Amino acid sequence: MNPRLPEDTHTHTYLCKHAGGEPREYVRRAEKLGLAGMVFTDHAPARDGYDPKNRMEEAEFQEYVRIVSAARDDSPLPVGMGIEADFYPGSTAFLTEWLPPRRLDVVLGSIHYIAGWGFDNPTEAHRWDGTDVEGAWRSYFTLVAQMAATRLYDVVGHLDLPKKFGHRPSDMAVCEMAAPALDAVAEAGMAVEINTSGLRRPVREMYPSPMLLRMAFERGIPVTFGSDAHMTEQVGMDFDKAVALARETGYTQYAVHRGRKRSMETIPG
Ligand code: ZN
Ligand code: FE
Ligand code: FE
Ligand code: ZN
């Protein structure tokens, strides 16, 4: 059967301690919506006490493999196993060693901290008040460029995450600070995801903004689609809007990763 919507390449499991639902149910939801497939990309473990409350333990990875494989086994849809790995200064040492033997389909690279500040965490959002917004965004995009330079990741997760609670510099400033970061992303051969979870946040806008997506398109950067589902009902959420945005921007294809190799598929619908 022809899929109605693209693969969902960004979904979580309960192992990260802040998501609910059964992986099997996520897959069933994807199937019901007519998605081309889905990929679990739960939060990767980290060391040195980095944000342990929001990720699986290193020792839990085997269970992750088990639950994703079980969900795949009784699914008519292609189900991938990826990971969302944080980038932060110092993350490279662990990931360089940890990622290669894991046999993952895709590695999303995400930045959730600026200098120890969990800027997208609701419990730390108050710090946006009194913060130099443009300066924070600038630091963030510097991290994006550094992340790309590590060559450890396949896809940039939620490219303009700092806008989550509505704090955003002018388009001109964003364009100027994102340009070198996107150059680095293109240079690294990474894709950028269209992440619909922003629509569920105070900003009420997908990541990235139409402007940033256009900048990615101009650089030949491929896209993936992700719901960032932390609950069953969020799988494939607002994918019709994401597909519309991709098309308006000029995209006719999207990237699918298996065994960390990329193929390009026609955007369905
Ligand atoms: Zn999460
Ligand atoms: Fe994330
Ligand atoms: Fe996520
Ligand atoms: Zn995420």
Give me some keywords for this one:
269 residues; alpha/beta; 7 helices; globular; binds zinc ion; binds fe (iii) ion
Describe it.
There is one protein chain. The chain has seven helices and nine strands, in the order βαβαβαβαβαβαβαββ. α1 packs across α2. Helix content is 32%, strand content 17%. The strands form two sheets. A seven-stranded parallel sheet has the order 1-2-3-4-5-6-7. A two-stranded antiparallel ribbon has the order 8-9. With 269 residues, the protein is an alpha/beta fold. α5 (171-187) links the parallel β5 and β6 (191-195). The two termini are 13 Å apart. Residues 84, 110, 112, 157-158 line the site of one fe (iii) ion (FE).
Number of strands: 9
Contiguous low-pLDDT stretches (5 residues minimum) are none
Distance between the termini: 13 Å
Shape field: globular
Q: C-alpha Rg, in Å?
A: 17 Å
Biggest sheet: strands side by side, in what order? Answer: 1-2-3-4-5-6-7
Query: What compounds sit in this structure?
Result: zinc ion, fe (iii) ion
- SSE series: EHEHEHEHEHEHEHEE
- Strand residues, percent: 15-25%
Pairing-aware structural class of the strands and helices?
alpha/beta
- Major sheet details: 7 strands, parallel
**What is the arithmetic mean of pLDDT?**
97
Q: How many individual helices? A: 7
Q: Can you give the helix content as a percent range?
A: 25-40%
